[in-house]
């Protein structure tokens, strides 16, 4: 899942804008899931600030605090390409850290949370900031590496009835193609067309 923030200054004066995302961490059955990052290899992380050289392209959230057998691993993707502003720091900490304020102190905890920070910057009139992160089982892909695809289904889904599948692609990448794979028992009635 890609979470995207677009902040535009539609006014006539500059405004300073930053963004902090707070996430209470819970992976499968563990409210105290621990973390791992490729910039700090072979370490379970808790109570750590990742920034500058330690800020990775992604952070792993481990169901079990064991690098060899972590159970389910969720990924917080931070690097989503050159057109999207990458967060400047990530704080791996305890639940409740920084409630009611901008900063989040990093401390070890059995009930974990994390903060993602885009530091305050001035946005001039007509300017904007595009910030995003991905979260899910695998790494999120950069929206600039592929065209955006939206799919719609219409018609009757009752057995023996026909329905339409329509895919809309915005800003397709050169050579990009889509493949329609039908499950067993479903067959195509008419040919695919491009608008």
What labels would you give this structure?
five-stranded antiparallel β-sheet, 11 strands, four-stranded antiparallel β-sheet
In short:
The chain is mainly beta and 195 residues long. It is built from no helices and eleven strands. The protein has two domains: 135 residues, no CATH class; 45 residues, no CATH class.
Tell how many strands the DSSP assignment holds.
11
Q: How many separate structural domains?
A: 2
Number of continuous helical runs: 0
Q: How large is the radius of gyration?
A: 21 Å
Name the average pLDDT. 88
- Give the SSE order as H and E letters: EEEEEEEEEEE
Shape: globular
Task: Give structural notes.
The chain is mainly beta. The protein is built from no helices and eleven strands. The strands form three sheets. The chain has a five-stranded antiparallel beta sheet, with no helix packed on it. A four-stranded antiparallel beta sheet has the order 2-8-7-4, with no helix packed on it. The model has no long low-confidence stretch (mean pLDDT 88).
SSE blueprint:
Blueprint (H helix, E strand, L loop, with lengths): L1 E7 L6 E10 L9 E3 L11 E4 L6 E5 L10 E5 L11 E6 L17 E12 L4 E9 L11 E8 L7 E8 L25
Antiparallel strand pairs: 1-9, 2-8, 3-5, 4-7, 5-6, 6-9, 7-8, 10-11
């Amino acid at each position: 899942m890609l979470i995207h923030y677009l902040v535009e200054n539609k006014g006539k004066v500059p405004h300073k804008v930053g963004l902090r995302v707070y996430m209470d961490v819970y992976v499968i059955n563990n409210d105290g899931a621990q973390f791992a990052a490729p910039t700090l290899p072979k370490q379970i992380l808790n109570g750590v600030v990742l920034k500058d050289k330690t800020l990775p392209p992604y952070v792993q959230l481990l169901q079990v605090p064991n690098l060899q057998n972590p159970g389910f691993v969720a990924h917080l993707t931070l690097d989503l390409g050159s057109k999207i502003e990458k967060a400047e720091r990530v704080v791996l900490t305890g639940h409740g850290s920084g409630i009611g304020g901008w900063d989040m102190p990093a401390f070890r905890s059995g009930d974990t949370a994390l903060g993602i920070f885009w530091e305050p910057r001035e946005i001039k009139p007509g300017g904007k900031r595009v910030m995003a992160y991905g979260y899910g089982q695998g790494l999120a892909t950069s929206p600039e590496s592929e065209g955006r695809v939206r799919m719609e289904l219409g018609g009757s889904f009752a057995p023996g009835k026909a329905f339409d599948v329509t895919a809309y692609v915005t800003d397709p990448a050169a050579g990009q193609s889509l493949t329609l794979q039908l499950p067993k028992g479903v067959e195509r009635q008419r040919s695919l067309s491009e608008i």
